[in-house]
Amino acid sequence: MNIRKATSADMPRVLELIQELALFEKEPDAVVITVDDLIRDGFGAQPLFEVIVAEVNQVIVGMALYYNRYSTWKGKTIHLEDLIVSKEHRGTGAGSALYNQIMHIAKEQGVKRVEWVVLNWNTPAIEFYKKSGATVLEDWYTVQLDENGINNIIK
């Protein structure tokens, strides 16, 4: 297995994995981004995110998309937006390899925290994260305002 930084040429496969994750998370119609969006936003003059991929026999079987954030409590942090391994390659160590590489990147960057969101029904992921030493915050809620909500506020 090979873990490497993704290139713009990898974005069609990355989008497929994002769509697979949306299906797993019971939101199959939620993905509206395109390959062009991923290329523009991840590989332009000021990239908004980075992606690493897991390959087996030069086929991408998983990916992790992350970006830097800033915490008023901790300083520079990394937000792990998505980590997905294709269904047929789960249990092969690809997810652990991607997860570990994110932590290596965090250490190299000197960040004070890596954070992400996990669905409360995704018990295998929660157990994996807890076993790795991560704290699952059960008393915080994720808050989002979608495009319609934004437009309603700024009428």
TrEMBL record:
Gene3D superfamilies, A to Z: 3.40.630.30
Highest taxon above the source species: Bacteria
Keywords: Acyltransferase, Transferase
Cited InterPro entries: Acyl_CoA_acyltransferase (IPR016181), Diverse_Substrate_AcTransf (IPR051016), GNAT_dom (IPR000182)
Gene Ontology terms, MF aspect: N-acetyltransferase activity
CDD domains: NAT_SF (cd04301)
Similarity annotation: Belongs to the acetyltransferase family.
Protein name: GNAT family N-acetyltransferase
Organism: Myroides pelagicus
